[in-house]
Hints:
The protein is mainly β. It contains one helix and eleven strands. It has a single domain, classed as Rieske [2Fe-2S] iron-sulphur domain (Rieske Iron-sulfur Protein), CATH 2.102.10.10. 13% of the residues lie in helices and 37% in strands. The chain is globular, with a radius of gyration of 19 Å.
Amino acid sequence: xxxxxxxxxxxxxxxxxxxxxxxxxxxxxxxxxxxxxxxxxxxxxxxxxxxxxxxxxxxxxxxxxxxxxxxxxxxxxxxxxxxxxxxxxxxxxxxxxxxxxxxxxxxxxxxxxxxxxxxxxxxxxx
Length: 126
């Protein structure tokens, strides 16, 4: 095998490791968002998701949930307006209390969900 073939083989192995094509999984620790004691029921806040995108976190009597703040229409950032998340670009409106579903405007699908949970004293992104 020449040097080029060897390097190509190394690249394939490295790519497989990076993109999860191995039998072994590396467990990532959850991303801490906010302490439970600092985030009472009825609260919502913006945070940065593990992928670097803006997101919104909500806490209700039944638990916590979060959505990407990226509009599913053209990728603008939504902002809270009353009890909705509204896109300033084209007026898309989403209801975070109904699975992020579209309630107005051009978006065709709901906001992307972000998995969050309460672990010990923290609200974390899984």
